[in-house]
Amino acid sequence: MLTKSSSLMRLVGELKKLPGVGERTALRLAFHLLKSPGNLTALSEALVDVKEKVRACSTCFAITENDPCAICSGNRDAAAVCVVENSQDLMSLERSNAWHGVYHVLEGAISPLSGIGPSSIRIAELLARVEAGGVSEVVIATNFTVEGEATALYLTKVLKPTGVKVTRLAHGIPLGSDIEFVDAATVQWALQGRNEL
Amino acid sequence: MRLKHLLVSSFRNIEMIRVEPGKRFNLLYGFNGQGKTNFLEAIYLLGNPRSFRASRLPEFLRHGTAQALVCGEVESCGTVSQIRLTLEHAGRRVEIDQKGIKRASDLHGKLNAVVFSPDDTSMVKSGPEARRRYLDRAVYTGDIGYLHCWHEYHRILKQRNHLLKSPDKAGMDVWTEKLAAAGAEVIERRQRYVGLLDRQLQQHYETISGGSETAGISYHPEGIQAADRAGIRDELLQLFERHARSDERYGTTTAGPHRDDLLLSLDNRPLKAFGSQGQQKSFVLALKMAEMENLQTIFNEPPLLLLDDMSSELDAQRNSNLMTFLTSRDIQVFITTTEPSPALVAATAHCSVFRVENGNLTSEGNKTHE
Ligand SMILES: [Zn+2]
Predict the structure, then answer these.
(1) Nearest-CA residue of chain B relative to A181?
(2) What is the third-level CATH fold of B1-112+303-370?
């Protein structure tokens, strides 16, 4: 029988630390890796590399392997900055191909309950970027949670005195959905943010 | 609305019951502690995110079981749907017609029920918290948007209170502004609904009590004169401003809609201090009838009425006044009582009688009077 210190059980233990992975899934994954043909060098190298090579862009704080990141150094409109909570949000905005400006990743949202205040996230860095000049619009794309909304309000307060245009991402009814099946809160928001045609 | 079929398993002291309730009156009788209220609670939980009793989830699970189930077939506006509620230590799960719901508000209006229990009568005498709990529950049943703004307000409140206790108060003004905005919506929706209840209250009070006193319910949020949301928000900001010092001293938000009270009055005097026991009972029952009336208007059909522990709550005269009211309407009623008084059965046409004993339900058939 395998002991706790055996390499298989150690692997199971490490996998269990991942979000959404319980004992059963960890065991299944471990056995899958054990039985998979060929060696696991590619996977283990990727695991080591991700930690060693990936870091935050010194301009926008998106995760990147090259500093500045491809977006900051690419052919984008640097005068328009979209503020997101994390790099995952940046990736979903990028998938939409709808944004041609640059980003600023806050690395979180204000939440006293989690001990996160305005100084624990990249707000000072954003302000410095705007004050350095060359930014004409900041689009706030934090989440529509209580914490994301509070962060948006805080950003508006610190950015307004700089004279930069501050806008908030609109939210409303998902495309392709029937209004009948959209929850009431979303409908209310969509009504408040309605546009003249 | 009608409950056509109900299955309850491993819920409190109920091991397993299946029942087809009668269309009109359902009388459940048995000694105290046999599970009559548990049965009403199971029905109530099918349509509401919270129980009418102050209880925590583990208390719902029958001793030694990990999962309780309540499953009901509800007829509403000509269609029948199935609501299935699973309760486990980890949380609750609701499926409507085999589809899991994503938010608590998806359950809104699927099974409307108004409860009248001894707890409701005691809210007159107890502190503001009980009346606030009643108010929040009543507003929610008639206003689908209420749950969202209520949750939002309480989340912001929690964040703000935490910040008040921390040494670094950076960002306080943001949380205060957010709290005022969410609080304004909570207050506006409460005011609107209490206004609706107040308009219905008087006639029902007269029906139940036979008395001619003026019954009133009103909500006067602290520091608020305005009736529109923007005005309320500004006044809330001023209120928080005035309490900033005490908030900091106590490390918690000391004023706001989470501290407000509901005013119940008889002839413009506080019911709590001046109403007799009988007047208080009549008042609360009239309030429940006003709620039913409102739900009927909003949903185009009457809710279920759950009357818990009738025998202890109302005297013969009020009982008979209530029965006259109920028989004149097409409402499905569940009544629990320690004794099936002949008067009660006689007063109700089409009554299904059930005996409740040790978590079991035995049908004693239908007593029909024409
Ligand atoms: Zn960058």
Answers:
(1) B106
(2) Rossmann fold (3.40.50)
